[in-house]
Write a structure and sequence with these properties.
about 130 residues, 3 helices, START-like_dom_sf, alpha+beta, seven-stranded antiparallel β-sheet, single chain, Alpha-D-Glucose-1,6-Bisphosphate, Chain A, domain 4, START_2
Length: about 130
């Protein structure tokens, strides 16, 4: 199995950290922008796209700051994390994404995040 490459992207989101966090951690929030539907039972989250299910485990979370998931398929130690960063001076809110992809799929993965975060901004009424 090839080594996955870690990548990070940042998006400015016009939202309060508290509201944004609800869209990152709750099944109802995630299903509005990240997947077609999301179910959770404890630490286990089921993400559904076009009828296909992917299972992830909630590894860590800190209220209004970040959430980290790990896909249960595959035996590597990769994860995806969505972190809320507030600029201390301007108070601008950014969503900082950390994810992993195969070397030849990094650009595709970034484009996927770009589309999903665009949906998130639309749901939040952010530009």
């Amino acid at each position: 199995m090839s080594e996955k490459i870690k990548f990070e992207i940042e998006y400015v989101i016009q939202s309060s950290p508290q509201l944004l966090y609800q869209y990152l951690v709750t099944p109802s929030g995630l299903s509005e922008w990240f997947a077609d539907n999301v179910n959770s039972r404890g630490e286990k989250y089921i993400f559904i796209w076009d009828g296909a299910e992917e299972e992830a485990k909630l590894l860590k979370r800190k209220s209004d700051e970040f959430v980290r998931f790990s896909w249960t398929e595959g035996d590597d130690d990769t994860y995806f994390e969505m972190k809320i960063i507030v600029d201390e001076i301007t108070k601008d809110v950014s969503l900082f994404i950390t994810d992993f992809a195969d070397e030849d799929e990094v650009d595709e993965a970034k484009m996927l995040w770009e589309n999903q975060v665009s949906d998130l901004k639309q749901v939040l009424g952010s530009k």
